[in-house]
């Protein structure tokens, strides 16, 4: 049975994720995937590093923190060439068109510390 309270994991300070940047963190507490943190128009977003094209959720970056396309306008799965909207996680180009990345809950403290919670399907009991 899943706990109603999920553990938050510290990832970094807010000022460490610049506009049009994306960085991977984790995996945390036995989870299989990293969490991608990115910023667009000043808003932070967190996504599970798993392209929905395959049921196993292929990691998207081909090298450390290479989660954005060349123009830095979309998250990209470099294995499949899929493009995802940064703010919605929706695939707009590629083999998983119409599917979405898995959103990750995020919290920012008054001191600018960023915390994430593993998605339910990644939690261990």
UniProtKB/TrEMBL annotation:
One of its GO terms (molecular function) is metal ion binding. Pfam families: Rieske. Keywords: 2Fe-2S, Iron, Iron-sulfur, Metal-binding. Residues 9-116 form the Rieske domain. PANTHER family: PTHR40261, RIESKE DOMAIN-CONTAINING PROTEIN. This is Nitrite reductase/ring-hydroxylating ferredoxin subunit. It comes from Ciceribacter lividus.
